[in-house]
Amino acid sequence: MMRQTPRPAAALRHAEPAHAGVVLVDWMLGNACNHACSYCPAALHDGSVPWQRREDVIALMDRLAAHYAEGLGRSVWLQFTGGEPTSYPGFSEIMAESRARGFLQSVVSNGSRTLRFWKKAAGLLDSAILTYHDEFADHAAFLEVCRLLSDRLPLHVNVTMHPARFDAIRARAGEIAEAAPGASITLKPLRKGFGTALYDYSPAQLAQLSERVSRAPDPRATLPRSVMELVAEDGTAERWRANDLLVAGQNRWKGWRCEAGVESLRVKASGEILRAVCGTGGVIGRMGGPLTLPIASIRCSRDSCACVADILISKRRAS
Ligand code: SF4
Ligand code: SF4
Question: Which residue positions in the chain have pLDDT lower than 70?
Answer without folding.
Answer: 1-7, 215-222
